[in-house]
Task: inverse folding
C-alpha cells in the first residue's frame, strides 16, 4: 500500500464515519430511536473488540489499549442497557 493509498483510506474513513453516525441518528429520529441506540452500542462494542485484536503496530495509539477497551466497553454496555430497558420511540 503506497502513501497515497493510505491517505485515501484515511480520508474515506474521515468522511464515512460521521456520515454513518448522522445516518443512524436520522434513523433514530424518523424511524426507531431504540434500534438506533442499539446500533450505536453494537458499534462501540465492535470498536472495543477491534482494539483488542488490532496489533499495536497497526493501531493509531493515543491512549493505552486497556483504556480504549474499557471506555468503549462501558459505553457499549451502557448504550445496550439503555436501548433494552428504556421505552424509546
Result:
Amino acid at each position: 500500500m503506497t502513501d497515497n493509498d493510505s491517505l485515501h483510506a484515511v480520508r474515506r474513513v474521515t468522511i464515512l464515519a460521521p456520515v454513518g453516525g448522522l445516518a443512524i441518528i436520522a434513523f433514530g429520529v424518523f424511524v426507531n430511536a431504540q434500534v438506533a441506540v442499539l446500533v450505536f452500542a453494537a458499534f462501540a462494542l465492535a470498536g472495543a473488540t477491534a482494539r483488542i485484536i488490532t496489533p499495536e503496530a497497526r493501531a493509531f495509539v493515543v491512549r493505552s489499549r486497556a483504556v480504549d477497551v474499557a471506555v468503549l466497553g462501558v459505553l457499549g454496555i451502557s448504550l445496550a442497557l439503555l436501548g433494552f430497558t428504556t421505552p424509546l420511540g
